[in-house]
Amino acid sequence: MAPAKCENKTMNRSADWLHQAIADLQLARISADAGHHEWACFACHQAAEKALKALHLASGQQVWGHGLGRSFRDLPAEKAVALAGAISDLEDRLRILDALYIPTRYPDSLPDGAPTDHFGRLQSEDAYCHARALVDAISSALA
Question: What CATH fold (topology level) applies to the domain 15-142?
């Protein structure tokens, strides 16, 4: 589904979405520091999703769904090229974060155990690094 164009420019809430993306990154750090690595990984996905939604809104369009790769591909071409130029291996980073959307929350998405048993410090640090790069690049683009 192609992103919808925003008809009413006065309702551009891109700053609010970016603000929440930054708050989600802060939550990811707090969660990881408290040993809740599964939740930190999910918060990193959420931060990336919300930052991408902010970029869409700032570009005059709205995107729906939770897939980061699709959200990136649905950006206007000039925005996508600029973002990919600002972040090395961007599409691979988005794939890593997309893979964290479901298994970080639902035990039945894993062969056994709860998500808390399957995610640790290395995963949350990796997710944080990728999400931080995206949020920082989008923050700069929207500044």
Answer: Four Helix Bundle (Hemerythrin (Met), subunit A) (1.20.120)
